[in-house]
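chain below, 128 aa
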Amino acid sequence: MRTAPAAALALAAAAALSGCVVAPLPARGYGGGGYVDHGYYNNGPAYDNYGGSVVVDVAPPPPRYEVITPAPALGWLWIGGYWGWRANQHYWNAGHWEAPRAGYRYVPHAWEPAGRGWRERPGRWDPR
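prediction:
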């Protein structure tokens, strides 16, 4: 019978593909998504943090789809990828996993309108 090799091939393909998930980013504004919320993220208003921020006149491209791999340990947080600015152009920083920090929440990277341009707000860990 031919069903046994086909079933074995289907089972092997399913096992190989079960280790990763392709998750689209939410269809909200750039700064409002791109991360998995485990209660460690800041869902309140943006903070004024002008140290090290960049203002450019070119809007960031739409976020990219990312393959979110399995967490390296239980409770780790997925920090979504984002567009940064270097050498007068946007460049993509891929998402990654980070261990949670006791007493802190992660504020995701964001681009905000600033006059006629866009201000970059780097992601950071803030005290709760």
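Residues 114 and 125 are 23 Å apart (CA to CA). Residues 20-50 have pLDDT under 50 and may be disordered.
thats it, cya
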